[in-house]
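Margin note from the TA: students keep mixing up input and output lines. Inputs are the sequences; the output is the structure of the whole complex. Example:
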Amino acid sequence: MAEMNLEIHIPPKSIFSIGEISITNTMITMWIVMVLLIGLALLIRYRLKYLPAGFQNFVEWALGGLYDYSAEIGGETAKKHFSFYITFFLFILFSNWLGLALGVIAEESGFLRAPTSDLNSTLGYAIIAFCYFEYQGVKAHGFFGYLGHFFNFKAIIQKGFLGLIDFFAGILHIVSELIRPTALSLRLFGNIFGGEILLAVSFLLFKAFVPVPFMILEVIVGVIQAFVFSTLFLVFTVLNTAHAEEH
Amino acid sequence: MIIGSYGPAITMAVGVMMPALAIGLIGSKAMDSIARQPEASSKIQTNMILSIVFAEGLGILTFVMALLQLSKA
């Protein structure tokens, strides 16, 4: 039996460093994704035609579909948050797919790796999402109105002793609020990193043919995880901005 | 410890059981409701995917714990 050694690196590999900051392989892949997305956007922007054809047609179809879809999930208010939603979706989708396309090829050198298979970057996305939906919550209810959801003194004053139940529900709400970014980042990281390990093991055991269905599975997982992250972000934002009478 | 280096394997095996059951139940219920009301299938599918994701999150937590054990060993 051939010697099998599988090395699993949870932290990303440092390629080179500028001063104190080390540039890792996931960062390089992330820059490639950024350049790709900005390039695509500019390409579409400067070639806009009144009658869409070819690639512009495809982009309009995809964005229009997602725009209607976001309104379907979160109602009319969700349309305001569409720019963030679509940015998360496209960025995570391209990260997953680029990692899938390049990561396996560059397996030996480890030069490129999916940004989403690094807990640092998924935590970064989750913190951005967290800040955004907290900010929207404060914007919709006012600072003290928003804090009132968590420290519900108003219920005690209004309902007396029974209001204590509402007060403790508010305290529990803090926990559920704080667990959102943790769950978002761990979910994305676990799925993508788990998929990479699955692919690495299948490439180690069988050189050809057998990994193909796993690759297809990972392509689908990449779409679903990008969709899930952005949709959960949208749902949390809409929940935070919704007024108390509505939910 | 008797468990030794089998810790991550046992963690995964035990921790994945219940999420798997949950995902199966969610899927089967969703199929039932789509068969009953095919016109609501798009709404059901979205909610199904979201619920599956929440159940799957538990499995992912297990996976992260197994990875932590693996990296310490």
